[in-house]
Design a protein that fits this description.
By secondary structure, the protein is of the alpha/beta class. The protein has a single domain, classed as 3-Layer(aba) Sandwich (Rossmann fold). The protein is built from 10 helices and 9 strands. The chain has a 9-stranded mixed sheet with strand order 1-7-6-5-2-3-4-8-9, sandwiched between helices. Strand 6, helix 7 and strand 7 form a beta-alpha-beta unit.
Amino acid sequence: MELIELEDHFNTVGGQFISSAYTMQQKLQNIKAFIFDWDGVFNDGFKHSPVGSGFSEIDSAGLRLLRFAFYQTNQINAPLAIITGAENPTAKWLLEKQNGNALYQKALDKNVALEHFCNKHGLKAKEVAFVYDDVIDLPIAKQCGLSFCMGRLANPLFLRYVEENELADYITASQGNEHGVREVCELLVGLYGNYDDCLEALLERNNLYRQHKEDLQSFKTEIFEIDGTDVLIV
């Protein structure tokens, strides 16, 4: 698919490109890992008791598609992390299902989590793609190589600020409770240019896909809590 056609697809559903698809595709070549915020990104942001908030299997499937697209492009698996200001066992469950690498909980200063993640995996912030939804996430959004902000009808002034200060490359049409993660994943796979190939490999469970899944088994989910500037293993 040509980039202009890709932009048209996402503009049609209401997505907003702050960076052009061409610029995002160039940035994507340097991306080696993916970090997601949790509340308001995988869900509506409501707290539902001490067990925390949930996620959609539609978004989970999008993550699987994205990670395979990265593997198909780079012949390695990309580290995956979630950084959240709360304590959420459901986020841990999702990461374990995905063979994700790290959950950072109680991260009121998300810079601490980002620095720890990058140091642990030998990365620079510019080599990370970040998906977020609100003010507390902006310090990370400023640093990362690609940033995606969840669109939300309730905060038009915040989205104006994000746009004017170029704190995201793309603002989603979908809100967190409307599968915005899937929208970001689909866009990223479209930018890799291998969407159809990925779907066919997934359907066929071909050798490359099986190798991808086997290689993912080496990734084990670690849980960290942020205490000031300290990162504690849970």
